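Q: I'm building a small set of examples for a reading group on sequence design. Run inverse folding on the following structure and report the sequence directly after it, with nothing in between.
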């Protein structure tokens, strides 16, 4: 059922919460593969996502959109660009989980909405309220606190923020539905992914081919595609402001998993920086609701 931009639906809420909850639990799945190279895990995420999203597009009768897309050089070019950004994002995230830096992953996804706001102001000329500028500045200060305390930039968090922000920015310019766009991305990526996995197999180094790793890797498509599909459907049935609030579910769950399941130390620097991020998100959330109220 269609909904206007100023209405929320129970179905949309359910889809979105399910998507963000699955994303929040993704580190547990990735931790099972921490002994494998990040590139190999990403390649399997790509390959096994293709049949899942292809089946959905077939069932929903959206194959005509793909035929148009494959004959459009401009659309293929934009899809190739978004594919590059999502590959970087996935690769760094898999690496972070395997190297006990899931908290950096949580930080990156906390900062992301504020970075998207900043991108909108710089690249699209969107006017930001004083509250939103304050939120962006506070998040930047939190990164400075972590950098000074740790002696180095929290680069996984920053790369995750930049890559996902760039992905979302370019995705808006891909004139095709989200499910079809995702299929285009994994279809493009499947070529180098198959080549890389074939190269590993020829060297006798690939994990696929037997044992528990094979079964876990074969689940990568469902684990990757299902949350994206749920999110795409939920976003259609919720107000943008509601989606803006619900997106904090994922990094919160990632943080809890990192601390209470993986046993990563929170530390004094994060005890200062994370509340600053939460305060920034509080300002941002208040600004969203204040701007949405007149509408």
């Amino acid at each position: 059922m269609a909904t206007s931009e100023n209405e929320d639906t129970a179905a949309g809420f359910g889809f979105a919460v399910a998507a963000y909850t699955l994303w929040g639990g993704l580190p547990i799945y990735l931790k099972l593969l921490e002994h494998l190279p990040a590139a190999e895990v990403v390649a399997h995420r790509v390959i096994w996502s293709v049949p899942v999203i292809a089946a959905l597009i077939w069932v929903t009768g959206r194959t005509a959109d793909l035929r148009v897309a494959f004959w459009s050089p401009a659309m293929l070019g934009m899809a190739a660009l978004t594919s590059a950004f999502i590959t970087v994002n996935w690769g760094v995230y898999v690496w972070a989980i395997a190297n006990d830096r899931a908290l950096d992953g949580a930080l990156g996804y906390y900062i992301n909405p504020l970075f998207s706001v900043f991108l909108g102001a710089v690249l699209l000329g969107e006017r930001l309220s004083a509250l939103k500028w304050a939120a962006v500045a506070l998040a930047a200060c939190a990164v400075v606190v972590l950098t000074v305390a740790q002696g180095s930039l929290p680069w996984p968090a920053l790369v995750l923020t930049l890559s996902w922000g760039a992905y979302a920015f370019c995705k808006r310019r891909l004139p095709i539905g989200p499910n079809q766009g995702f299929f285009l991305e994994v279809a493009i990526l499947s070529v180098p992914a198959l080549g890389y996995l074939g190269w590993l197999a020829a060297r006798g180094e690939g994990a696929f081919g037997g044992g528990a790793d094979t079964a876990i890797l074969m689940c990568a498509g469902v684990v990757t595609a299902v949350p994206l599909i749920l999110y795409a459907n939920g976003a259609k049935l919720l107000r943008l402001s509601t989606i803006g609030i619900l997106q904090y579910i994922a990094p919160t769950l990632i943080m809890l998993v990192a601390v209470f399941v993986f046993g990563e130390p929170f530390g004094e620097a994060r005890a200062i920086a994370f509340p600053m991020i939460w305060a920034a998100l509080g300002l941002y959330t208040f600004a969203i609701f204040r701007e949405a109220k007149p509408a």
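The chain has one domain: 10-292.
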